[in-house]
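$ ./design --mode recover --in tokens.txt
reading tokens...
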């Protein structure tokens, strides 16, 4: 009986020993796997989490929104200067493409969105428009068509009556009417007073004469700022 018990104990001990060896081998293999493969994976996972929380590289977003059309500051629609400066605002850093009489030129807006152009005008009416292109390549709608008229020719001016040096006499002739014609749209002043001009350029001005010589300076100023002056003297004897 004692011999059979000893045999069972021996078998159990061998079985326990094999199990212990198996678990030891399995543990060593598991630790090796973690060491050679698990740590790099953990590192990669850490980098991934760090990038999601705002790592060194920012997530790039695509800009597909076009900028608004550029806005121009006020500029004259008539000028007697061939070189004209125009400026305005747009999206900061955007490129403004301005087309003048069919020719396009570019200006990059500064950090405040301000741009400017120096234009060389041709004689007569000049047409211009513009678009903005942002840094992502999005293009705005075109502005309206603007016009600048370059005109450096003095306006026509004719005094039809009375003639220079004319004489007037007595109380019936103490009042006189100066009549003439200039370019349509021009402004007339006589001795500094603004005189009405009709759509055809005709004007007239009635005044009271003083005894002796009465000088009159008639000046026509067109919309571009060009002027023509004619002087007459009317003599009055009471």
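writing sequence...
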């Amino acid at each position: 009986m004692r011999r059979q018990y000893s045999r069972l104990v021996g078998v159990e001990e061998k079985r326990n020993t094999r199990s212990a060896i198996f678990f030891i081998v399995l543990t060593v293999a598991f630790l090796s796997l973690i060491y050679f493969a698990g740590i790099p994976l953990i590192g990669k996972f850490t980098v991934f989490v760090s990038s999601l929380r705002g790592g060194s590289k920012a997530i790039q977003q695509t800009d597909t929104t076009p900028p608004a059309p550029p806005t121009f500051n006020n500029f004259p629609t008539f000028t007697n200067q061939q070189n004209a400066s125009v400026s305005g605002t747009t999206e900061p850093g955007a490129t403004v493409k301005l087309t003048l009489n069919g020719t396009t030129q570019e200006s990059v807006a500064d950090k405040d969105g301000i741009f400017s152009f120096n234009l060389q005008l041709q004689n007569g009416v000049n047409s211009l428009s513009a678009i903005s292109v942002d840094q992502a390549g999005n293009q705005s709608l075109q502005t309206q068509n603007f016009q600048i008229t370059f005109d450096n020719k003095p306006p026509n001016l004719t005094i039809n009556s009375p003639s220079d040096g004319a004489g007037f006499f007595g109380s019936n002739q103490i009042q006189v009417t100066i009549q003439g014609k200039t370019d349509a749209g021009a402004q007339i002043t006589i001795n500094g007073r603004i005189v009405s001009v009709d759509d055809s350029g005709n004007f007239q001005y009635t005044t009271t004469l003083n005894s002796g010589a009465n000088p009159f300076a008639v000046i026509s100023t067109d919309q571009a700022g060009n002027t023509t002056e004619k002087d007459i003297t009317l003599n009055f004897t009471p």
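exit 0
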